[in-house]
Amino acid sequence: DAIEIVESKIKPIDRREKIPIDLTVERILARDIKAHFDVPPFNRSAMDGYAVIAEDTFGAGQFDPKVLRIKGSVHAGEVPGVRIDRGECVEVATGARMPKNSDAVVVVENTEGEKDTVKIFEPVHPKENVSNAGGDIKEGEVILKDGELLDPGKIGVLASLGIGEIEVYERPKVGILPTGDEVSAIGMPLEEGKVYDINSHTVSALVRSNGGITNMYEIVGDRFEDARRSIEKALENDIVLLSGGSSVGERDILIDVINEIGEILFHGVQIKPGMPTLFGMIEDKPIFGMPGYPTSCLIDAYVFLLPAVRKMARLPEKKYTRIKANISKKITSTLGRRQFLTVKVRDGEAIPVFKESSTITSISNSDGFIEIDYSVNLIEKGEEVLVNLWQ
Mind listing the pLDDT tens digit for each residue in 113-128? Predict the structure, then answer.
């Protein structure tokens, strides 16, 4: 239900920007591309050999070669100033423009050249070993469409048409606000009783690897007005993410702040880890409140934030690679809560590595996770499970 609520509030980005094609890999094209000329723009040789009139080679064989007069040569990039007639040929390099009146190429391996003539030992049919004008792309053809994911091959298509810049949809901006007086920024001396901010960096990495960009803000203290000012500033982004302060506790004031300036759509999800997850809207901007513990926060980000960022970025839904394995030991779970259990896979076994929600190595030491359904409270050792791999 929580996933459906998030899904209903996320809208794809409509903003567009023009960028060099070399920066467009994994970006989404923002307009149709129509070819303004043929590719290739002329008939060209697909092999090193001799451009011929195919009919002149008919009947050629190893013991009865056809002999043609060499009228010249053409290299790639040159414009041939020669036309061949029956009984003539032109030596051509791969990629060279075909001479006028020629319609096929005999590969050099099937010939024996002399001073002014060449012996042809194998016949060719018309258009053999020739790349025809427009054989790859036809002028006027729509070769890429609005909404397509650009990959190296599609970037090659743009380059073939001489297009150096292209319009793509902008990437969604995610503002990340760590909260809590106990959190210290990296680079600062670690005072007694404090811990370094992990969540800003793990969530930022997840966002950037799924089509978004991040803006990281200063740590928000446990004071109402500070939290309000920080959240309002972060609304310059498309999504706001808070880590920490989503639990119901004496000093967790984010709930009150969001209620005052926006609307909370859910607070608390029956999952483990990550139960105190929060989601709401402020000025039509989605806001996520993730638990402060690193494993809880990052798993929540995979479950809720990642799909939201990909939808905003117009990227296809992430599909996890799934493999079957046998659990290495008996696992007990909590009825009524869907559990995401991190595991390492070795020799067909799924080895649980989850320690507790506060430990980042519960994820860093894992290859993926298994989902344990609400209705399951026991998985016996050796039972087959389905592992969702991170990569």
Answer: 988 999 999 999 999 9
DSSP 328-353: SS-EE--TTSEEEEEEEEETTEEEE-
Residue with tokens 């493999």: 323
| Amino acid sitting at position 292 | G
- Mean predicted confidence (pLDDT) in 209-231: 90
Instruction: Give residue-wise pLDDT tens across range 1-18.
Output: 999 999 999 999 999 999
Distance CA 380, CA 378 (A): 6
In angstroms, rounded to a whole number, what is the distance separating the alpha carbons of residues 9 and 283?
12
> What's the Cα-to-Cα distance from 110 to each of 57, 130, 161, rounded to whole Å?
11, 16, 34
From the centroid of its chain, how far is CA 2? 26
> What whole-number distance in Å separates Cα of residue 279 and Cα of residue 233?
18
Q: Residue range 235-239: average pLDDT?
A: 98
Phi-psi region of 173 (alpha: psi -120 to 50; beta: other; left: phi over 0): beta
Q: Is 137 left (phi over 0), alpha (psi -120 to 50) or beta?
A: beta
The reported pTM is 0.86
Q: Could you report the per-residue pLDDT of 49-95, keeping only the tens digit for each? A: 999 999 999 999 999 999 999 999 999 999 888 899 999 999 999 99
In angstroms, the Cα distances linking 51 to 63, 118, 119 are: 22, 11, 13
**Helices and strands (DSSP H and E) totals, the chain:** 8, 28
Pairing of strands 384-389, 368-372: antiparallel
